[in-house]
Amino acid sequence: MQQVLQDVSGEGSMLLKHVSAPIAAAYDFLTTKQEEKQIKPPVATPQVNEFEYDDTYTSPLANEDRTVTCPNSERYGCKDLWVPDVYGEFCGVCENCGHHFPLEYHWYLKQLFDRDSVREFNREVTAGNPLEASGFGQRLQAAKDKTRRKSGIITFEGRVQGVEVVVAMLYSDFRNGTVGSAEGEKFVLACELAKLKRRPLLSYVHTTGGIRIQEGTLGVVQMPKCTMAVREYVDSGGLYIVVYDNNSYAGPVASFLGCSFYQFAIRSSRIGFAGPRVIRDTTGEDIPPDYHSAKNALKRGHIQGIWDRRDFRRNLHKALETMGGRSLYYR
């Protein structure tokens, strides 16, 4: 009798479970919906972004009343961009694919550093024609008249969110950012000032076309000279950061820029020892279109990261605050 009662009760429980399951599911569904109605979604609190770019400088390119086509339009379907938008509000970046259009170095001087914090030094050091190369003196003077500067590098002190830095900037407007005796001397003086004041050293490469061949050995010797100055600075406890942009090639990249432990590149920049034309003339072969891309430089381990221009200021500040450990020498 006991066994019969157990079997009957077990079958009855299974039967009751099958009958009540749909009712229980309906009850749970209605209860959950009621609870969801009572819970209100959290209200997003607006955050103030202290790293946003301001209107202290507008690129002259933004004054052109026309549109520009993104180079990646066929691949990613990018629409034509209105020039005042792309070079003004969008920081020279395609909204769709993130392609970075080149911007003049003035944009970085005004947007990357704290307002009115840039203080240039050694401006009087001037590039010359020590070997009296034929016709080079006139071209050099034309570059000076065009830029109203005396060399292809700008050295200055500045602040990034309150952090004092010493900066050496190679820029394209003066002989394509090539390095000669004057540029090398100014870079060494920047290293010495950073070491003396115990400040981080930033080398921003707007563009560099290599060593100035018109100066011969005097130009080539700038590579070991600047490398030794950087080495002494780093050995003294300095933080040396290099950021590449646009086209960064040849001797400087292979020496005093490439020896940094912390190297980054702005997206869409091209980095390498020799440019496509030099490689083609030397080897007789064409290289793949993306051979010098920042992405490939990251894969090869040449750089440690790729930065978006719109995040340049934020990422640089983060690097200054975190790299080198908790006891950074300039704190």
Folded structure, characterized:
The protein is an alpha/beta fold. It folds into two domains: 49-101, no CATH class; 103-322, 2-enoyl-CoA Hydratase, Chain A, domain 1 (Alpha-Beta Complex). Helix content is 40%, strand content 14%. It contains twelve helices and eleven strands. It has helices spanning 2-38, 73-76, 83-89, 105-111, 136-147, 181-197, 217-220, 222-235, 251-254, 276-283, 294-299, 312-322; strands spanning 67-68, 81-82, 119-120, 153-160, 163-170, 201-205, 240-244, 247-249, 262-266, 270-272, 305-307. The strands form three sheets. It has a seven-stranded mixed β-sheet with strand order 3-4-5-6-7-9-11. A two-stranded antiparallel sheet has the order 1-2. A two-stranded parallel ribbon has the order 8-10. The protein is elongated and about 120 Å long. The N and C termini lie far apart (87 Å). The model is unreliable at 35-51 (pLDDT under 50).
Poorly predicted spans: 35-51
Mean pLDDT: 84
Radius of gyration: 30 Å
Number of H/I helices: 12
Structural class: alpha/beta
Q: Going across the biggest sheet, name each strand in turn.
A: 3-4-5-6-7-9-11
Helix content: 25-40%
As for the CATH topology of the largest domain, it is: 2-enoyl-CoA Hydratase, Chain A, domain 1
- Specify the overall morphology: elongated
User: What is the correct CATH architecture of the largest domain?
Assistant: Alpha-Beta Complex
Total number of beta strands: 11
CATH class bucket of the largest domain? Alpha Beta
